[in-house]
Design goal:
Layout (H helix, E strand, L loop, with lengths): L8 H9 L6 H11 L8 H13 L3 E5 L8 E4 L1 H25 L5
Antiparallel strand pairs: 1-2
Helix pairs in contact: 1-2
Length: 106
Amino acid sequence: MNNKIALTESIYYILLSLEEPLHGYGIIQKINRLSNDRINMAAGTLYGALNTLIKKEWIELVSENGAKGKKEYQITDIGIEVLQQEILRLKELVTNGDLYLRGELY
């Protein structure tokens, strides 16, 4: 996969949080933990993003009868590829920034 798009921080953390099935509130809690309490995602933002990610086939609905009858979502193989590409892109950004600050990149 040659995915050259940059993910928003919200999409990045949603994908990162879904290695196991989670319902919406669980996703919000996990994103909060993964971001060291920096990102507090609103439910409306999350559910809009989940619908978009399902359409892109980056995540899937795995259960409509999860905990307390809530819908549960999980990342797909395509979503894992997208996430891996984004991690590589972010590493490149950090490497280039470090090189620039050391005067080794012009």
